[in-house]
Every structure is written in structure tokens, then in C-alpha cells.
């Protein structure tokens, strides 16, 4: 198995065990999840965190062997074989692979024959169940494309609300594992708005799925809205195949902090009845938002920076945490600068600087992108606010009004001259039916100079 250059460098660090030790307790963390996401999270930690790599990869091998997906076992084995060749898990279990592969092939053959029999008998309910069983089997062995096709065929034979919802849930799970955010988002919308015994669960599940998909598509504000609407009254065990209550608090809090203004943060996040329950699982997120609302921006950023390494271990956040943090920092700088006409670069560095980080380049980028209305005085080391001159604004407004009035006056004069010269276009003759059945025609009276003519 050939490794990407980034992973080769990563595993080269294993001997020296370089890297900061995260506060994450792997055993406690992974107990928050069920289903395939356990393996996904373990393998991601094994690829990205040097101190936890061996422990995570060993757990990933164990997790893979609990199921029947040979591809997952091979992936975990190849990684731990390079990272820790002396561990027992680094020795390939050929017997398990051969036994599992044979069982998978036999089960696939059996389900195919069973489905063909149902189709010959033309029993819709049996055909639906056969496609569902086949899709579940393909999903378990990691053949997600075939699973999606089987669930898609299942949809044409559904007849009850519960069956429609079950089909939608199956498709959502498959597309989420494939990271096909668009299709997962579409199918999530189809499981809500239907009367069912588990309506609250369906709504919450759709909100969490939609939030993760919007996060994947980098629609951060829409993602935050979905997470903030999650119902804390639904037991967490019902959706732990996707995320934990801690994840909802982190995703919703960070994305709201990146995209909401101060009043929205106070009303919808800190004072929101349902989301406040989620925030109890991650009090540092609530504390960071409170610092921002109260204008203590450096304290807010300090808390977030202290948890950056933990967020990089999340399978949904790690690719987008830099973009989220950049937005939050930009908001903090803009709000910090609002009361002042000018600020020294030294004071900005004190408030927002980090070791080895050039704040001036960030300010230049924000000015170019229009996020910060200011200019940098390099000579005096100042950030100077650029505010419009009220007199200049008034003059421009007056000139715009005069220009509009002049343009309208010219158009009116042109209209008058056309009418006076007899160059006006003829009106359209309209016919109406009178009570006696005779037709009468008349010209459109809306135009100047037109006269009604009865025929």
C-alpha cells in the first residue's frame, strides 16, 4: 500500500513521538458513538494525532473485525503495520479475511436469488424487503454504491409513511458515509413533515444531517441554524451514529460565532432554551461566546486556540477549522476596532497576535476583501479608520437626485414633442361584446389625445 507524502511524514514522527498531547481521552470519546462512525473517527485520529495514533489504530483494527467490511480492516492494518509493526494487530489475520470474504460472497448470492424469487412472484412488499436486505448487506460490507442503488429501487415499492421514512434514512446514511453532501441533504428533507410515531427523532436527525452537510459544503451560517434548532429532548442514543451532544454544541457554537452578530448570539445561542442544554456538555464554547458578546475578544480567541488541536481530530471539522477560525478572528478584530478612529499596530498585536504570526498581513487581507474599513499607516504604525465624509455623502446624494430629475425631465419633453409632431404610435383597437350581442370597438383611452370611436 503506497502512502501519501503527508502520511509518510506523519509516521516518520512516530519514533520521536512529536506533537502536542491532546486532552482527548480516546476510550471515553469513542464511547459516545455507535455504528460506522466509530471506525471513521478512530482511523482519522490514527492518521492525524501522533500521541494517540497507535492506540487509535489498534482500536480501529478491533472495530473493523467486529463487522464484515474487509476493506476497512485492510486500511487499518496497513496503517498500523507502518506505525507500530511490533503490535499484535500489525500481523494480518488471513483466516479472518478468508472466512469473512467467503461469508460475504455467500450472503450476496443468497440475497440476490431471494430477490429474484420475489420479483417473479410480483409481491411488492417482498420486493421492497428484499431490496432493503440487499442494501443493508452491501452497506455492511462497504459496497456503498451498490447499497445506494438497492435502497433507490426499494423506494418504488414503499406504500406507508414508515416505509418512506425508513427508505430515506437508509439513503441518508449511505450518502453521509460517501460524503455526498448534496444527496444526503436532499434525502434528509424527505423524512421530515410526515406524521409518524418518531416525528421528533426524524426532525432532529434531519437537522443534524443538514447541519453536517451544510458544514461540508461550507455554508456555515445555514449549518449553524440547523444545529441551533436541534431538540435536546431526544435521547442522544438515537443519533450517535452521526454525532454526540458534545459535537452538536461544538459545531453549532463555533459556526454561530463565525457567522452570527452579537444580538443573534445572545438571543439564539446563549438564551436559546434547547441549545443551551447542548452547551452544558461543552462549557468552554459557551464561555467563548459570552466573552465575544461582552467584548472580551482576546479571551474568546484564547479559549478557541487552546482547543484547536482537539477540533482537528474531528472528522467533519478538521478540513474547515482554519476557515472557521479565520472568520471568528476577523469578526473580533472588526468589533474591536469599531469604537476607534485609529489604533496602534502594537496594541492590536497585544490583543490578537500569536507567536510566529504576522498580524499585519491579516489586516491587509481584510482591508482588500472589504471586511475592514481602514488603512495602514506604515510610518506611524497605525491602523486608521476610513469613514466617509458626511459633507461628501450629502453632495453625492444631491447630485444623484439632480441627475435623476434631469433624466426624467428630458424623457417627458421628448414625449411631448412626439405627440405634438404626430409621431405617436397608433392605439390598439379593442373589441367588447355589448348586452345585445353586437360588437363595439374603441381606442385605448389611456393615451393622450385618443378618442373613443363606436363602430
From TrEMBL:
InterPro entries according to UniProt: PCI_dom, Rpn7/CSN1, Rpn7_N, WH_DNA-bd_sf
Family to which this protein belongs: Belongs to the CSN1 family.
Keyword Cytoplasm found: yes
Organism: Stachybotrys elegans
Gene3D superfamilies per UniProt: 1.25.40.570
Gene Ontology CC: COP9 signalosome; cytoplasm; proteasome complex
Residue ranges the record marks as coiled coil: none
SUPFAM superfamilies noted in UniProt: Winged helix' DNA-binding domain
Disordered: region residues: 430-455
Subcellular location, record wording: Cytoplasm; Nucleus
Name of the protein in question: 26S proteasome subunit RPN7-domain-containing protein
Domain (PCI): residue spans on this chain: 219-390
Keyword annotations from UniProtKB, A to Z: Cytoplasm, Nucleus, Proteasome, Signalosome
Chief location bin: cytoplasm
PROSITE patterns assigned: PCI
Keyword Cytoplasm: yes
